[in-house]
Amino acid sequence: MHPSTIKHHSTNDIVGLFGDLPQESEGLHVYISKNEFNEIPVSYPFRTDNHTFMLILRGEVHIQLNLIHYVLGSNEMVVIKPHTVMHILKMSTDLKLVGFCFSNEFILQNNFKKTDYDALNFFTASNIPKLKLSKEERVATLSLAKLLAKNNQTTEIALPFRKEIIRHGFITLMYHLAAIFRTAHPNLEAEFSRQEDLTLRFLSILNLNFKKERTVQFYADELAVTTGHLSKVLKDVSGKTASQLIEDSVIMEARLLLENSSLTIAQVADELKFSDQSFFGKYFKKQTGFSPSKYKNIS
């Protein structure tokens, strides 16, 4: 792995970079900015394994999520899925925000019910837009976040039923946000279907393997389904076939790496496990219309 490729950060890494302390529950962190930012805490593209909400209380932030540019202002919130490449481009000096991040392990360890999963299914929706919260929704969200953060702080004196308050406080906050999302997007499918489950499992395996495995057969074998069934399900859920989603992952990573001026095209080809630079160049041009060198010059 080249030292300047896209970094992967754990929750504790992000917590430290934002100047916060680790909290009580492993796999859950609530961040409420206390001071204005003098500089961007993480100035390069990075990934995490966590689900993340980001709610802007004041000011403005420009971020890229998988190369899509978002501008978030006061009372606007965005949902960031695991393995998303996030790049903070610009922050206003008066920025204040609330962030919630949690891992799949936190969900599993707390034995949430199926109805709880159904409430969280907006995480599986494609192309989730940013949400604009009303004044009342913002006040309620911040109040729930403060309650959860207070009980999750290791510096706080442990109250009776602390773990129960954290568990129920978290799910109350998630239901609150789910209600806001469902109100804004009433046609979202309420049930967590088998097709969505297969899609999530495919995307999870894809995120771990796309650099070295680019055949649909590999992923179908991992999921114990036929290639035809896999592509049909993915097309129904995401609008793209398995091969298209594989190509999208490779090309997105290639574009991000090519934008890094310290990496040569040969190093990018090697990082993405292509047999040689020429084969990578043909693959990239077929998908984008640009040669890697031309894309590097214009990016």
UniProtKB/TrEMBL annotation:
* Position of the signal peptide: none
Report if keyword Transcription is assigned: yes
Transmembrane segments annotated in the record for this chain:
none
Which molecular function GO terms apply here? DNA-binding transcription factor activity; sequence-specific DNA binding
The record's section on Gene3D superfamilies has: Homeodomain-like
- Name all HTH araC/xylS-type domain ranges: 200-298
What UniProt keywords are attached to this protein's entry? DNA-binding, Transcription, Transcription regulation
Q: Which domain of life is it from?
A: Bacteria
* Name of the protein described by the UniProt record: HTH araC/xylS-type domain-containing protein
Organism classification, top ranks?
Answer: Bacteria, Pseudomonadati, Bacteroidota, Flavobacteriia, Flavobacteriales
